Amino acid sequence: MIKLPKISMLSPELTKLLKMSDSVKIIGTLDASGEPRLSANDTLTSLNGISLILSEKLEKSQCNRDLVRSIWYGKPVTVLVFHDGTSFEIRAKIYRCLIVGPIFDEMLARAREKYGPDADIAAVWELIPEKCRDVSEDTVLREQKAAHPYYDSHLDRESVRSIISK
Amino acid sequence: MDSLKVSELEHLTAKYPDVSPFVILKLSMICHGVALTPRALDKVQSATYNFGFLEPFGIDYEGRTKDKAMPGPILLRDASNVYINYGDAGYADPYRVDWDEEDGIFLLMDGGELIDSVDFVPRPGFFGKKTNRGVPMEAVADVRAQKLILTAYQRCRLWETGHQCRFCAFFTSENAAKGVAGVASAEMDTADIYETVREALKERGRFSEIYLSGGLDESGKELFDNELDRYIRILQAVGRNFRGRFSSQLMAPAYSKRQVKRLYDETGLTSYCPNIEVWDEEKSNWLCPGKSRLLGHKEWVKRTLDAVEIFGKGYVYTQVVAGAELAAPYGFKTIEEALESNFQACEFYAKNGVIFLSTIWRPHHASRLGRQQMPPLEYYIRLARGLYQIRREYGLSADNDDYKHCGNHPDSDLERMD
């Protein structure tokens, strides 16, 4: 009934971004009515270079409830990781939810290290990336220029106009 | 060739798209049973999974090997747990859990078909330690993923007169007869309990609920007074570990208002669960003769509602042993009648602020009902869905008895998306 997830290594660039404490990490989910929802989650990381791990602080947060729906009904989620012009968009399947065990403990330890000994987490989620795209501005621009060289170039731009001597 | 269990799962998952497939799988595992392959059994002997040989509820399982320890409950990928009577000989064609050495995971199989990857609740850090009196801590407390389970009185006095509930197999094992903790008294020592809880809390982020229950003891000046005093002593001992009220549940008989007030005022308890076991009065009298004789069905219900005045709406629970109401020879003849009865009960309790939950009746050779046929899986799916929907209409959420704090109630598992 289940197909065990295909395991592949995350790219070194993405792994680096995930480990940076000041990168922006966004989770995109669908709520009960099919409405797209976004939530920032600075805990998103990878502990093994293969799967994505995040902790949710609250059992009843929008994201946590949407992740339950995703794992129950096999719906993918989208993750965006961004830092200083470099960004990756990842489509991922929810592999499992953890409320006990070494990975849960590791993520709780991180939360307590960051926010103090009274910090808590509700659940840890493990996501398996299915598709990963480099959506950094430079990359996207390069791709578009190759396919559509005349898009997004207003004719008054300096890079387009010839230099007319007065 | 497709297996019957897989076909059944696929059919029912498609038929009930609003019920989590994990809840359906869990129910199927409870109905059909789960056995461990020799490889899996070897793997759970490791320090991560080994739950030892003590069984705090003292149930007599026939098919367990004496030289291999059993693991804790199974964890599904959505973190819900499945409490399985490992080794019970009553399963005709159980699922199997195997260990995949290459990928380092346990696999739930049906014949040659892979159903899902699973895990087990890990062994808690306090197992293997002893209290100052030399009592093994695993004899004092059992665990689920985040729940610490204390059994205050490891005997039920209804068995002394043959008036035990007909579905019950608690305290029937050889160990239970000797005293599960290896001590002469059935009553747990408060110092042992305090020390065990203190030790358990050293494990980072492990426990978020303390649960207390025990066999029924009606003795005392007023009915149940000795038992109440015992629970208060134990809850006070547990409470020495906390600043104020702590997330907890007591599963006990329906006490008088005076007794419930004492329970609330003198301890840090947050929820109370006097189990009705069976809603239909006539069937209840047959299935729970001891409780009927002592208190009677109507008084049990009245006292349960009275407890809401003290613990508050949504903090008084009651459970049925779902399926026992269909047992032969005097149970309901159809699942429609049984569903109607349980839904009526849930609605009645919900109107009065009480959370009505189902647990699954697993027929057992040591109970008076013996090994009977369980109701079909679809009955349990419809029951879980119906109970969940009724409670939701009344704004009730089983916070003390959800997937994380118990795991034995498929209907409260469904609350996770709310």
List strands and helices in order, with pairings:
The complex is a heterodimer of chains A (166) and B (418).
Chain A: H1 12-19, E1 24-30, E2 36-40, E3 52-56, H2 62-73, E4 77-83, E5 86-98, H3 102-115, E6 123-134, H4 137-147
Antiparallel strand pairs in A: 1-2, 1-4, 3-6, 4-5, 5-6
Chain B: H1 4-15, H2 21-32, E1 34-36, H3 38-43, E2 74-75, E3 81-82, E4 95-100, E5 105-110, E6 113-120, H4 137-140, E7 141-143, E8 147-151, H5 174-178, H6 190-200, E9 209-213, H7 225-239, E10 248-251, H8 257-266, E11 271-273, H9 281-287, H10 289-294, H11 297-311, E12 316-322, H12 335-351, E13 354-360, H13 377-393, H14 410-413
Parallel strand pairs in B: 1-4, 8-9, 9-10, 10-11, 12-13
Antiparallel strand pairs in B: 2-3, 2-6, 4-5, 5-6, 7-8
Helix pairs in contact in B: 1-2, 6-7, 7-8, 8-11, 12-13
Question: Quick recap of the structure?
Answer:
The complex is a heterodimer of chains A (166) and B (418). Chain A is an alpha+beta fold.
Task: Describe the model.
The complex is a heterodimer of chains A (166) and B (418). With 166 residues, chain A is α+β, with helices and mostly antiparallel strands. Chain A has a single domain (12-136), classed as Pnp Oxidase, Chain A (Roll), CATH 2.30.110.10. Chain A has helices at residues 12-19, 62-73, 102-115, 137-147, and strands at 24-30, 36-40, 52-56, 77-83, 86-98, 123-134. In chain A, strands 2-1-4-5-6-3 form a six-stranded antiparallel β-sheet. In chain A, strand 4 (77-83) and strand 5 (86-98) form a beta hairpin. The radius of gyration of chain A is 20 Å and the shape is elongated. The relative contact order of chain A is 0.17. Chain B has a six-stranded mixed β-sheet with strand order 1-4-5-6-2-3. Chain B has helices at 4-15, 21-32, 38-43, 137-140, 174-178, 190-200, 225-239, 257-266, 281-287, 289-294, 297-311, 335-351, 377-393, 410-413; strands at 34-36, 74-75, 81-82, 95-100, 105-110, 113-120, 141-143, 147-151, 209-213, 248-251, 271-273, 316-322, 354-360. Chain B has a domain at 4-120. In chain B, 34% of the residues lie in helices and 15% in strands. Chain A binds chain B through residues 1-2, 4, 32, 59-60, 65, 68-69, 71-73, 95-101, 104-105, 108-109, 112, 120-121, 123, and chain B through 6, 9-10, 20-22, 75, 77-79, 103, 113-117, 119, 121-122, 145-146, 204-206, 404, 416-418.
